[in-house]
Amino acid sequence: MLNAQLLKEKYNNKIYYNSPDGIFIADSTGKYMDVNPSACKITGYTFEELTNMSLFDILHPDSKDEVFNVFKSLKSKGKTSNEFKYINKDGTIYYMQVDAVKFDNDTYLGFCKDTTKRKLNEEASTELAIRKKLEDDLIKQKKQLEIKNEELKAIMESMSDGLFMIDKNCDFTFLNQGGHDFFYKPELIKNGASFTHTKYYDMQGKALLVEEMTGSKVIKGEKIKNSRIKAERPDKTLYFSMSGNPIYNEYGEIDAAIICCRDITDQVENEELIYQQSEQLEAIIENMVDGFCQIDKNNNCIKVNKAHRKFMESGKISEFEQTFKHGQILYDENGDVLFDKDIPSNKLLRGESVYQ
Question: Is 194 a domain residue?
Answer without folding.
Answer: yes
